[in-house]
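Now for one record.
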Amino acid sequence: MPTISVSTLPTTSLPTQSLNRLKQSQVDAYNRDGLLLVPNLFNNAEINQLKQLIQIDPTIEHEIGGPLDSHGNASEFFAFSGVPDDLLGAFVRVERLVETSRDLLAREEIYHWHTKISFKPPGTKARWDWHQDYGSWYKEGALYPNSLTAMIAVDPVDQENGCLEIIRGSHRCGRIDHIPVGRSMGADPQWVEWLLERNDLILCEMTPGDCVFFHSNVLHSSGPNLTNRPRTVLQVSYNAVDSAPPANSLSFTGHRFEALNTIPDSALLSHNWGEGVDIKTHDRLTRIKNHDRARGQNIYGYTFNRKYPEGTKQD
């Protein structure tokens, strides 16, 4: 650790970063609000291809699980870290998603933190209680909240079927304590109440192919899906390289830096990704995740539920 005098710190302006995909006004809006909606980031053909994979692949179905919410209802998602060589990995690496994320993170070099396919089938009672992503990622060793999530609508998403809800500008609070809330964990309810009194509540209603990018410290939640329509979203999270967990952190195994090799936008449709997921890579990534010390010690405090208990097979 070098020691330097305060008098030697530079006071000149930092060079302006050249944006790749966004306008400066969009970056300014993200920094102000903690989120940015980019409509039609993916076209119907790309989303339909993803939707078909999600619906038919047994690996995804068998690995669905999630924490209980504050009322004891089980959420459902399929998650992975690393980058498999399949359509899911292609969405992680596609230039339009990576470069837009880098624009929002001051053009920092980034890598894949993790991806979730979040399911809310018709009639789902489970909700996601108010939380910050960095509330957990901090415990996993991410040094700074220099990270974000890109949420892509696979189905039409609205308030009735449980869209993402965000407290506008709440990322500027910094990390808020996460404490037991009912049968789950969540952001301190007193802070949530105070912020809702002062800030706007944003409903992230989207059509398939829309994408909302949101800061890892922004407070967000989502309600139940009591409609007869599904609500499926793909959530790809990126972390800046300078925030990668140190080698002796609890979650270094599952979230260590791996260079992200991007693919051109056209590759989502022009490349033959096959009809299923890259089972070999997903199995390897699952083994890595299962040996992650953070997972073994349950540092998050959640009660985790699996749709199919480990050791069972889905016919």
About this structure: Confidence is low (pLDDT under 50) at residues 311-315. The radius of gyration is 19 Å.
